[in-house]
Amino acid sequence: MKSKKRIVLAYSGGLDTSIILKWLQENYNAEVICYTADIGQEIDRKKIIKNAKKLGVKKILIKNLKNVFVKDYVFPMIRGHAIYEGVYLLGTSIARPLIAKDQIATAKKFKAYAVSHGATGKGNDQIRFELGYHYFNKKIKVIAPWRVWKLRSRTDLINYAKKHHIAIPKDKRGAPPFSVDDNLFHTSTEGKILENPKNSAPEFIFQRTTSPEKAPSKAMFITINFKNGDPIGINGKKMSPEKILNKLNFVAGRNGIGRVDLVENRFLGIKSRGVYETPGGTLLIQAHRAIESVTLDKKTMHKKDSIMPRYAELIYNGYWFSKERFKLQKIVDLKRNKVNGSVKLKLYKGNITIQSRDTKSSAYSMKKVSFEENKSFNKSNVEKFINFHKKKLEK
pTM of the prediction? Predict the structure, then answer.
């Protein structure tokens, strides 16, 4: 007997992807393989397996990608100081390329002819997933239910779930108050009460950060150690990338650090309001800039700053695997071998203060900047330097 074709579905175990799973079974004569990438989101393994098995799924894969996510995706982005539209640290954007890559690898392993995702038809994630799919397999079929099925509302989904005896969480019996996406790097909250930019974000939506008002009244100090541009430890203790970010998330979140409320411009042209929590990432990006300030030369730093907006935009738009992003990453990493040392931070009620920078690098010269008279800096050349630029001003 000829075996069925296979589809690999990015599956969370929740209501929406369970409905997609059933819909795929109804509309495609294929075996559905449920694939979950564990990148540090709140995850219930038992629920994922239970819900998939109830719908007749035989292959259920839950991959632990947390360390890979931080080391190969978050850290390179931190080295680039990527910030989209001035404030967004790209927590959702950076997760999608890894999921797409591993989903395609899973499809190859099981000889699946198609992959499917649950991203909506108005969002950025459908683009990010599908550009990733395309990079690793240009011929694979992509099934995006939200763009093709006839289920148009939350009510339609609830009715479909009831018809097929799919468990409906109590908080999903009406339109949810907000939509949440999370991973080890961040948590994003969107929708409903936040859709009107006139509304303040209610305190109850924040999941990993304490409000600055309720944060400890005593300052906390933490030192991040860097080697070749990446964090390698905290307070002198070496740790894995995953553990470093976990630790920084905890201490920063406890001290009210990492909240952002913005109205962003989506790739498709729609404006969207989101509330993001990126506690550990906020510490990392400030500490990384601080260590670069004493280890890199002016030309390298300014070149990185000049390309950053484009670099961030590429990540936001789903172009992580593009030739242009690869090219910019080479510029970002040109002298990363010089970025070594440690940065001590003071955390207090939502604020971060750089306390000290410690490095063996010779990029920063105390002799040259000292107000004490010394012979290491020739001040007689300054007048020539100014006169040269006066002439350039007149051109």
Answer: 0.92
